[in-house]
């Protein structure tokens, strides 16, 4: 009985730590909102709305394409094709991960991941970026957003099938990992599997 109470209190302490992380993220986002307000930036229906004065200042700060290329390092120009060659495997990853989610998540009764929460295109709206910089931003937004999207799909799959922590410490584990069963705890594993699947069903 005492062992169960200790285990329960430890779980509650973990939940408190997780909640502190969430509160920290909310506070950080609030500070970002303050910074946007100080810069007189407004987002309406997902689009950046700038005053005429800010538009003028942004264009004045934009570096022309020829000037941008003239000051670019030769190695940066030579390696650019290797960077953009990643578009093909990224698109294939996007296709197969999306197909996997569309077919399997309804069968597992797991709530689907919204692409728009991870893959966001808005940097190209900034007036102080030239065409090359905008193209770079579109590529980075897609690549990093896609990897975040795929990681969230993998995270929900892991929580459904294998909510067990590794014996070794994992760097930058996903948010669900903190709630996984401890390595070598069979009872905890059964409890976490049941809880995770019940949670996912309720979200679906």
Strands of the largest sheet, in order across it?
1-2
Give the SSE string: HEEHHHHHH
What's the mean pLDDT score? 81
Total of DSSP H or I helical runs spanning 4+ residues: 7
Compute the number of strand runs. Answer: 2
Strand content: under 5%
- Give unreliable regions as ranges: 1-10
The first-to-last residue Cα distance is: 35 Å
Structural shape: globular
Helical amount: 55-70%
Main β sheet profile:
2 strands, antiparallel
Instruction: State the secondary-structure class.
Output: mainly alpha
Instruction: Round the Cα radius of gyration to an integer and report it.
Output: 23 Å
Brief summary of the model shown:
This protein has 204 residues and is an all-alpha fold. The chain contains seven helices and two strands. It has a two-stranded antiparallel sheet.
């Amino acid at each position: 009985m005492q062992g169960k109470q200790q285990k329960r209190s430890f779980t509650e302490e973990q939940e408190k730590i997780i909640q502190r992380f969430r509160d920290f993220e909310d506070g950080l986002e609030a500070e970002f909102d303050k910074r946007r307000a100080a810069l007189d930036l407004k987002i309406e229906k997902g689009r950046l709305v700038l005053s005429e004065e800010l538009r003028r200042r942004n264009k004045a700060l934009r570096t022309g394409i020829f000037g941008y290329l003239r000051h670019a390092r030769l190695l940066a120009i030579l390696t650019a094709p290797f960077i953009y060659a990643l578009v093909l495997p990224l698109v294939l990853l996007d296709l197969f991960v999306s197909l996997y989610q569309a077919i399997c998540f309804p069968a597992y009764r797991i709530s689907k991941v919204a692409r728009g929460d991870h893959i966001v295109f808005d940097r190209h709206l900034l007036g102080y970026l030239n065409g090359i910089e905008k193209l770079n931003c579109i590529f980075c937004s897609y690549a990093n957003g896609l990897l975040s999207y795929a990681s969230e799909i993998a995270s929900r799959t892991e929580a459904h099938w294998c909510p067990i922590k590794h014996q070794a410490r994992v760097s930058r584990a996903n948010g669900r990992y903190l709630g996984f069963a401890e390595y070598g705890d069979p009872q905890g594993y059964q409890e976490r599997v049941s809880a995770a699947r019940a949670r996912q069903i309720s979200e679906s």
